[in-house]
Amino acid sequence: MSVWFDRQFREQSAARKRAGRAIATWLGVVVPIVLASDPSWAQKPPTQAAGAVAQQAQGAADWVAQRRAGAAAWVGQGASDAADAVSQQSADAAGAMAQQSADAAAETVPRMPAPLAPNPEFARFPRYGGMLGSRRIVLRLGKKTDEPSGVHGEYQFADTGQVVLVAGDREGDVLEIEESTDGTSITGNWVGRFAADGSLAGERMNLDDSDPQPFDLRPLAGSSSTP
After folding, report:
1. Which long-range contacts (CB under 8 A, 24 or more apart) does 169-174 make?
2. How far is Cα 132 from Cα 164, in angstroms, rounded to an integer?
3. Containing H/E element for 67?
4. If you ran DSSP here, which 8-state letter would residue 206 be given?
5. DSSP strands (E only) in 64-187
6. Sign of torsion, CA 42 48 52 57?
């Protein structure tokens, strides 16, 4: 126990000595500065001079504290501005990514073509009415002016009014035409034959010759001659 107490006493004594040397050093620096700034303090009583020195020291400490507070506020404002800038950049990036995703989705989803409308040019062509599979249609079919065997026109479903374009050739009594529901891509083929009474019968198939559907059409009253 005495050994421990002795060691503690020596450590505390050494700490007091270090503190005393630090105070003396500080006074050795501050006092000359104060006396140099105002030589009249050298004539003042020690107590008054010590108070002045303490006041100067307190002012210096206050100045340092203010500088530190200002620096901290500046750093805090800078960090806040940086955080705002990062947040804005993140929001802009997220908006750009969302727009790109929307654009990509719009490009991925196929756009439905606008439905075709009856062509006034085909209104004067011969008309044929009847059945295509289980649906009733009216076919308008006429000769092309630039091809001896070429024919073109359109047919329209009676139940929905959908218009489908057709074009192809007629060789004698044999008719071979292709159809398009959008005016751009081919969606089916027709192969048929005209009878002596002007009626037309055959099959309509998909591009790969699948799903054949019979058609049976007859000239409608008031239409012009057979193409």
Report:
1. 170/194, 170/227
2. 13
3. helix 46-108
4. -
5. 127-132, 135-143, 150-157, 163-171, 174-180
6. positive
Both tokens assigned to 123:
């209104």
pLDDT above 80: residue 64? no
**Cβ atoms within 10 A of the Cβ of 128, count?**
24
Most confident range (mean pLDDT) of 34-38, 105-109, 128-132 is 128-132
Residue type, 33: I
Are 219 and 201 in contact by the 8 Å Cβ rule? The answer is no
Place of tokens 């059409």: 217
139 in Cβ contact with 127 (< 8 Å)? yes
Phi-psi region of 209 (alpha: psi -120 to 50; beta: other; left: phi over 0): left
Question: Global pTM?
Answer: 0.52
Residue-level pLDDT at 208: 93
Is pLDDT larger for residue 195 or for residue 27?
A: 195
CB-CB contact of 162 with 179 (8 Å): no
Whose tokens are 């955080």? That residue is 83
